[in-house]
């Protein structure tokens, strides 16, 4: 067998094995691409009337939110730009509840169980197939790895043999029979989306497999190991009030922020956990955040390790890529144009197993008809 025939067989059987999962991941990826925009249109409680007065401090909004969390603590409290609601949240491996409030008045706008949220459900399906993460994560990761191999093998199969074939590889012959149109859809659209799909697949594999995340970090850092995310420790022997410290640090950060930025206060779980602040310089994305850790009693800034420690601009290239992974995956890193690329890339990815299956079935039928025709000729009596 020639090299291209071997690649063709590999491409075919991997496609038949992983096709259903690739379709599912493509469709759910389409839904997640415009999550922020859809939420802005459908969730009116995210917005408040801008007022010419200061926000209520975190301690006051936290006290209000606690009344709606059924005895659970506030884990994070986010203030958006002027005109946006403030959000208090509790979350663990099972529960996730948010309380939306007017940051100027403390009025509760919405209490929502996010485990029943549509996009949250889609995200869990996209990541884990709604299975326990230990089971679903490697299944999705394996399908994504197969998809990456198929993209590479597809490019090899698509590559034209000569100059005469180049034009055909870049255009769809819409006026041809449906089998030819299907062939062109699979080959031409597959080629165009493959360059987007490679980024989608790689960023997906970073979540799916620790070994892949470690290898990616090793490559992009020039041979360094991926550092563990370790929080510094607060000193419980120092007298101090965590809520008061949080209010003071929040006010200090807020004074140096622009109206386009947002800030989140992450409260400690235990008596030795630090108090954390996250200043997002580009709300609507997750990567461009500066993380600060403080002693919860004294307010002293504490050093932290890991990719999510310190300022984004000061982070290494490898650590920046770790932070950017989700926003690259959904296209948000490039703004609205990037989301359109991710959306259409995911949509075409979902279509490829379908058009590929139709190609395979059509060829099988054609081969079967040819064998029947040959059989009839052989069985005809010689006169």
TrEMBL record:
Q: Which InterPro entries does the record cross-reference, listed alphabetically?
A: PepSY-ass_TM
Keyword Membrane included in the entry's annotation: yes
Membrane-spanning parts:
12-34, 139-159, 189-209, 340-360
Q: Note the superkingdom of the native organism.
A: Bacteria
Please tell me whether the keyword Membrane is annotated for this protein.
yes
Instruction: Return any one Pfam family short name.
Output: PepSY_TM
Annotated keywords: Membrane, Transmembrane, Transmembrane helix
Stated name of the protein: PepSY domain-containing protein
The protein's organism comes out as Flavihumibacter fluminis
